[in-house]
Amino acid sequence: MKTIWELDFYSRPILDENLKKTWEILICESPLDINANCDRLFRYSRFCSSTQVNSGQLRSAISEAISQAPNPPTQIRFFRRQMNNMIVKSCKELGIVAQPSRRTMTLRRWLEEREKEVYPQEPGYQESAATSASVQYDVAIAQPLPDAILGQKWAFVTLEAQAFAEMPEWDIAFQESFPLTSFGLSETTPIPGIILFSPRAIPMAGWMSGLELGFLKASDDETSQLLLETGVSDRWILSNLNTPELLKEGRRFEQAKANSQGIHFIAIQSDPNSESFAGFWLMQELNM
After folding, report:
1. Which of 239, 194, 197 is nearest to 219 (CA)?
2. Nearest-CA neighbor of 282 among 258, 259, 257?
3. Which residues span the membrane (predicted)?
4. Separation of CA 33 from chain center
5. C-alpha pair distances (Å), 130 with each of 9, 98, 220, 235, 258
6. Which pLDDT tens digit goes with each residue over 67-82?
7. pTM for the whole structure
């Protein structure tokens, strides 16, 4: 079974004795299924000075984390593009794949928790600088999906949160999810999503599983498109929302996402009558 870690290496709102910002390396394990116990997932942290911000320090921290973890990572995700070269270099030297990703929900929640409960207790804390989780992304031009994996049909759908308790019993070829229990959603909260239908469902799901799935976005601007955001800036056009009814459905989808803390899903099936999924991914749009 694969193990994926999420990593952040960045300055924190804490000044050291030389009035320089303290840096921190955070590593946490990604929950990959709906029943994952978040309290038992691996976590690691290390503070360091601004003079120690280099790939050697990061490589040392990752090595130490591996020595402490129950399972070594097969992949490490990170969301800060400005740290790309250092993170990729350190991971490569350890034989680990490093992947820029917006699928770092656990890390983001941990950062928010530390900004409220940990950093304010440290000597040198600077409240005005407590924005460790913020990052800016370039908006890329949306690209059409490759012809070989285009779906023939698609539909907006919703499932109540309680329905995902049965997800381990579903027949799914490619998937990734996370537990909903830590979000405080009621059992009847509608979780919005889309289902893509294609006779090439398995190849399509296989291709999609190789992406770092971020989130779905029903744009309500001059383009009016249903977009799949991947990596840290890639965008794919799933469909044009080119009728009044599709525009209304897109707006309802976005409203449902807002009501479910950004949680939604994308699924792939061979046809509407299929009882299995070629792919199913639970996602969350994060406020980056």
Report:
1. 239
2. 257
3. none
4. 13
5. 15, 27, 32, 30, 25
6. 999 999 999 999 998 9
7. 0.91
